[in-house]
Design goal:
By secondary structure, the chain is α+β, with helices and mostly antiparallel strands. The protein folds into three domains: 290 residues, BirA Bifunctional Protein, domain 2; 137 residues, Alpha-Beta Complex (YbaK protein); 93 residues, 3-Layer(aba) Sandwich (Rossmann fold). The chain contains 14 helices and 32 strands. Helix 1 packs across helix 11 and helix 2 packs antiparallel against helix 6. It starts with a strand and ends with a helix. The structure holds adenosine-5'-triphosphate and magnesium ion. Adenosine-5'-triphosphate (ATP) binds next to strand 9, strand 22, strand 25 and helix 11. Magnesium ion binds next to strand 22.
Length: 588
């Protein structure tokens, strides 16, 4: 294959697009791989399309290798199955819905659990039919609240989704392990630097759940890793170790005190140290219990207030909180809400006003660290007053616990107690146990060995295929442009012909033909009236891993071979070039 730049539909740009913040977005647009069509919606230009198809092909090969079978569902889907699973409403504003001319309701598939479940139910009925794993590589649609960073978070994007169907949990584990192995191979071949972390299983139940995160400082996901053991988890999935209850027989009675002008934790701690000094040590933010109010917005639009009590030295992590209430979303508890709850004294809200038994009846959930016997300073539900020595379990209780407080660097590992370290990543894939939720909702049962009907157990496995294109660039670029890993590069070799001599172009033409005949994919810069500087800049921007310059050196019988990643340059005799380059390409 030879792609000639003289005719290639490509226009590289020297300026970053104004709306681009992250390197992959800037570079993919500048190098002519993608173009924005609408917010979060991109067109793939010829070079980008080549890369996307290569990523797809890697995914396809590794899925096929574990015996998963490819099929293809429509993107335009009927409403009924999504009603049966409850997701038509659960997804809320995140799905694109539409109505046909007869009034029939449809959606653009955000993910296809329902369709996979139904097709297996249609055609299979016995344990002898299982296990089966099916997958597709499909365009998905989600009306993301914050489309971001080009194709990293799009509203239209390409996903590989697969589902395994098994009769038992033991059999499911084999399907899960097979997928996990395939994912390791996929992300290795994509050249991503990634970690596998424990993940939330989400609203769908099940227990096994892992994410593959590409390490990236500007990734949206934060994960923690133990500095001692092999624990690694998305912060959303971290369950803090719950301390043992503390005896409180000796604890003094709670007492409300005037603490004027202390609406923030810092002002409160200063006031406590100035007026209620402790003998043993100064008060710190960790002694205070902060009660944060939010609104939980359900898919059908209903709104429910929620109060979360956390130690005052921590903030609420909105992603952790969001993961706990999924598929509902979290919104601000704004002034209008406060107006609806005149009993809540802003800045001085305490447990007495909260919970099923509290005056406001607002559901109240506590950080798991707030165990029985712990003593707190918290709002007294009166302006300018706080209560001191309020003992959990003695003076107040809540409606339950919630994992919503931020996880901090240095926190104890839930497994071994050593300090955690944190880093950021981009979610590239998610494998998890779906369990029987969908099979039950859509009545997918098979006859087992004893002739008894059993509900099928499922696994769900996703790879962000279009996101991978961006994530690869995030992990592999420099100031000049993209540096594609060989397996996904739009071409193997980029030949740059520079100069005016006919001999140069003749040699470059011949080299391109011979390489192509040897099975090497060639991008050939055969443009005549373009300066060498522009050609080199384009080659570095486009990012093909091997650049071959046919130019001045030809007088001495050599071409220059440049390694895009290392910058190394070497002269190679023209007659050896094909053999040498073929070796480089095949050797990886
Ligand atoms: P995220 O937490 O990033 O929103 P998700 O948990 O909603 O992702 P899944 O439903 O598990 O994602 O989808 C499987 C994979 O599809 C993800 O691991 C991710 O790589 C990719 N993906 C999800 N949403 C998008 C998007 N808006 N744009 C591009 N890729 C996406
Ligand atoms: Mg996920």
């Amino acid at each position: 294959m030879i792609v000639r730049m003289s005719t290639l539909f490509l226009r590289t740009l020297r300026e970053d697009p104004v709306d681009a913040e992250v390197p992959s977005h800037k570079l993919l647009v500048r190098a002519g791989y993608i173009r924005r069509a609408a917010p979060g919606i991109y067109s793939w230009l010829p070079m980008g399309w080549r890369v996307l198809r290569k990523v797809e092909q890697i995914v396809r090969e590794e899925m096929d290798a574990i015996g998963a079978q490819e099929l293809h569902f429509p993107a335009l889907l009927p409403r009924e199955p999504y009603d049966a699973s409850g997701r038509w409403t659960d997804y809320g504003d995140s799905i694109f819905t539409l109505t046909d001319r007869k009034g029939g309701e449809y959606l653009l598939g955000p993910t296809h659990e329902e369709m996979f479940t139904l097709v297996v139910k249609d055609l299979y009925s016995s344990y002898k039919d299982l296990p089966v794993s099916l997958y597709q590589i499909q365009t998905k649609y989600r009306d993301e609240p914050r489309p971001r960073a080009g194709i990293l978070r799009g509203r239209e994007f390409v996903m590989k989704d697969s589902y395994s169907f098994d009769v038992s949990d033991e059999a499911f584990l084999r399907s899960y392990e097979a997928h996990r192995g395939a994912y390791v191979k996929i992300f290795d071949r994509l050249g991503l630097d990634y970690v596998i972390v424990a993940a939330m299983s989400g609203a769908m139940g099940g227990s096994a759940s892992e994410e593959f995160l590409a390490k990236a400082d500007n990734g949206e996901d934060t994960y923690v890793r133990c500095t001692n053991c092999d624990y690694a988890a998305n912060v959303e999935a971290v369950k803090v170790s719950v301390p043992d209850p503390i005896p409180y027989d000796e604890a003094p009675a709670a007492h409300a005190e005037d603490t004027p002008d202390t609406p923030t934790i810092d002002t409160l701690v200063d006031h406590l140290n100035a007026h209620f000094a402790r003998d043993d040590r100064p008060w710190t933010a960790a002694d205070t219990l902060k009660n944060v109010l939010v609104m939980v917005v359900h898919g059908d639009g209903t709104r429910e207030p929620l109060a979360v009590g956390i130690p005052g030295d921590r903030e609420i992590d909105m992603k952790r909180l969001g993961a706990q209430v999924e598929p509902a979303e979290v919104a601000a508890f704004d002034e209008a809400e406060f107006a609806r709850h005149p009993d809540l004294v802003k800045g001085y809200i305490g447990p007495g006003a909260l919970g099923e038994k509290g005056s406001s009846r607002i559901r109240y959930l506590l950080d798991p660290r707030v165990v029985t016997g712990t003593r707190w300073v918290t709002g007294a539900n009166q302006p300018g007053r706080h209560v001191i020595d309020l003992v959990a379990g003695r003076d107040f209780t809540a409606d339950g616990t919630i994992e919503a407080a931020e996880v901090c660097e240095g926190d104890a590992c839930p497994r071994c107690g050593h300090p955690l370290e944190s880093a950021r990543g981009i979610e590239m894939g998610h494998i998890f146990q779906l369990g029987r939720t969908y099979a039950e909702a859509l009545d997918l049962k098979v006859l087992d060995e004893n002739g008894k009907l059993v509900v099928v157990t499922m696994g769900s496995y996703g790879v962000g295929v279009s996101r991978a294109v961006a994530a690869i660039v995030e992990g592999s670029h420099d100031a000049a442009g993209i540096i594609w890993p060989r397996e996904v590069a739009p071409a193997d070799v980029h030949i740059v012909a520079t100069g005016k001599d006919a001999a140069i172009f003749e040699t470059a033409d011949r080299l391109a033909s011979e390489l192509s005949a040897a099975g090497v994919e060639v991008l050939y810069d055969d443009r005549r009236r373009v300066s060498p500087g522009v050609k080199f800049a384009d080659a570095e921007l486009i990012g093909v891993p091997t650049i071959v310059v046919v130019g001045r050196g030809l007088a001495d019988g050599v071409v220059e071979v440049r390694d895009r990643a290392t910058g190394e340059r070497a002269d190679v005799a023209v007659e050896d070039a094909v053999a040498q380059l073929t070796g480089v390409v095949r050797g990886g």
